Amino acid sequence: MPTPSDPRSSDTQPDPPRLRVLQVARVPTQTGGQPDWLIEPLWAYQAVGVLGGSPKSCKTFLALEMALAVATGTPCLGQFRVTTPGPVLVFAAEDDPLKIRARLDGLARARRVDFDALPVFLILTEQLRLDLPLDQARLIDAIQTHRPRLLVLDPFVRLHRLQENSAQEISALLADLRALQRRFQLAVLLVHHVRKTNGLASGQDLRGSGDLWAWGDSFLYLQRYHEQLRLIVEYRAARAPQPFTLCLHDTDPVHLQLDDDPPPPA
Asked: Do residues 175 and 211 touch, judged by C-beta distance below 8 A?
């Protein structure tokens, strides 16, 4: 029997896979065709990030509007250009599939696109916990099958049973999502809640661990002010545009629209 000191024992131990290392000057640049944006100027290309807001601030409506825009290549909110359209995969933990279907049908009619040909795919499982290896594997299988350009997970709090304020626990889950983004070259949008704030929302207002803010590339925040919504954009490493004003048109078809009025006061 070989012992750890016996040279023959190394024959049975496969070498670990080598890390891929490349001189920095040889890293491909974005001039090779990779765009800066998925939705300009709302969401960076292959970005991970958070769409945050208080309850009843139309977070899911905006997430579905973005999903429809990416899936069809039509301007998001009727104005913001989609650079690289493609399929979208959605998990909506708190909304009945029929409700999601009805919302997307209305959005498709509002944007004058063919709902029946819409490449938006809804994950129908009752529960998807990304802190469990089995559910991670199931999500990877769905991504491999449908090859989405954008993955929408709504809301973050229903994706795990970790301690929300624990940086150690949340950072591990976020690292797995970042690995998914890099492996499959997709964008990941988490819908999440923010704490109550009297001013303009930022990453510091996201509920739970501050790792969410450190993790993301693109952030959107919705704040309700009477009948209007303020949309705030934030990036990891770029200057953000001024906030936008949105309103929810509640006549059929129900949809969000940019408003010409200035944003509500902070």
From this structure: no
